[in-house]
Amino acid sequence: MSLRLGVNIDHVATLRNARGGSHPDPVAAAHVAIEAGADGITAHLREDRRHIRDDDMERLQALCLETGIPLNFEMAATDEMVGIATRIRPHAVCLVPEKREERTTEGGLDVAGQHNRLVPMIQRLADNGARVSLFIEATRRQIDAAASTAAEVVEFHTGAYAHALDDGDQALADRILEQLVEGGKLASAAGLEVHYGHGLTFDNVAPVAAIPEAMELNIGHFIIGEAVFMGLAPAIAKMRDIMDAARADA
């Protein structure tokens, strides 16, 4: 089965917001990504609005409805964000942990530890028509907790795997990859669709793409960064080629 690529366009908005004004427009970037073959668009509306803004989400949803491409709305598990998501009605909502002081998402959502608080939020989003995804670590405890909610999808955090490779610790990266592989098996057996994301690059994506249970990879920061040098559409095309080759060889 082909592996989907969700392109996260958050950091086009980061660049826009660094100077103010309206350029570059993340919605224009989403349009390019769709034309380049992205299977979905991902955007994270953070509580501090450091990159994507409320009007961006509304315009992204309009674009995705027009093109038939799903919008994946990443957000913290807060009443404010649930309210926004139920109003905008994206195809998918991915609940992620969020701390104001972090530069980017660090680790997975503690679904097991916050189960009683998260369950009604997840149910409300699902009842509103969203396909709910939970961004978690690939551990049995978190997978079992996710499976006991109305969520249909888990997205496993690949950041630790990517960081281990960046640090030159191949042995650690191999151990984490084993956990990601095993997590895919456990989640799939529990009836959850399996996605992966965070820190994936041209150099490290192939082993993750080769995981049989993987249905979608969500990649943003690296693709947007590479677009500075090679253009957004070519960066997406190259990532797609690497993913497809890895899946074909698996």
Provide structural commentary:
- The protein has 250 residues and is an alpha/beta fold.
- It has a single domain (4-244), classed as Aldolase class I (TIM Barrel, Alpha-Beta Barrel), CATH 3.20.20.70.
- It has 11 helices and 8 strands.
- It has an 8-stranded parallel beta barrel with strand order 1-2-3-4-5-6-7-8, surrounded by 7 helices.
- Helix 4 links the parallel strand 3 and strand 4.
- Helix 2 (26-35) runs parallel beside helix 3 (54-67).
- The longest helix has 20 residues, at 170-189.
- It is globular, with a radius of gyration of 17 Å.
- The termini are close together.
Query: How far is the N terminus from the C terminus?
Result: 11 Å
**Rg, nearest Å:** 17 Å
CATH fold-level label: TIM Barrel
Largest sheet, in brief, is: 8 strands, parallel, barrel
The assembly state of the depicted protein chains is single chain
Give the C-level CATH assignment: Alpha Beta
Using the 3D structure, state the CATH architecture: Alpha-Beta Barrel
Helix content: 40-55%
Key attributes of the depicted protein:
single chain, 250 residues, alpha/beta, TIM Barrel, eight-stranded parallel beta barrel, globular
